[in-house]
């Protein structure tokens, strides 16, 4: 076995590593966003100026959701072994984070040449890690090249829809929490 072969983790190892990679990226955004006001301030101003940044409470719930759901997918896929569908979902998550690393994080950095929350983990962890995981999935035949292309395409196309859905769910949960807090405070 060559030294190079020993340095490249297997797909199953990469699959488990997806959990801390996602967690680190979301944690960087969680910690840095209050200090910078937006994950992509320049893009938000230029492209999406008509949409106000979500309140921090909504972002916190959103980050929890987008950390827990990938972890559940990884655990399900690991439990199922070589399930094409579940391993496709793992690769879809990796592709979604890869797409997110490119837009908005690295695009924001290229445009503004300044730090925005998430750019460090996006560029130095998510991007290289996603390429390794996706390559290992194909090399070890967890997915075919065609299935990988489908996962990449689905992730790119669904990125805006997923963000909108997470925002809607997080907003609804935040509103429910506020109603419960208001009710509790009025009873006290």
State the oligomer.
single chain
Q: What Rg is obtained from the alpha carbons, in whole angstroms?
A: 18 Å
Mean pLDDT: 89
Spans of at least 5 consecutive residues whose pLDDT stays below 50 are none
Distance between the termini: 68 Å
Major sheet characteristics: none
Number of helical segments with 4 or more residues:
7
The portion of residues forming beta strands comes to under 5%
Tell me the series of helices and strands, N- to C-terminal. HHHHHHH
Query: What is the overall silhouette?
Result: globular
Q: How many structural domains can be distinguished in the coordinates?
A: 1
What is the share of helical residues?
over 70%
Number of strands: 0
Structural class, by secondary structure, is mainly alpha
SSE map:
Layout: H1 3-7, H2 11-36, H3 41-46, H4 56-80, H5 84-112, H6 119-139, H7 145-187
Helix pairs in contact: 2-4, 2-6, 4-5, 4-7, 5-6, 5-7
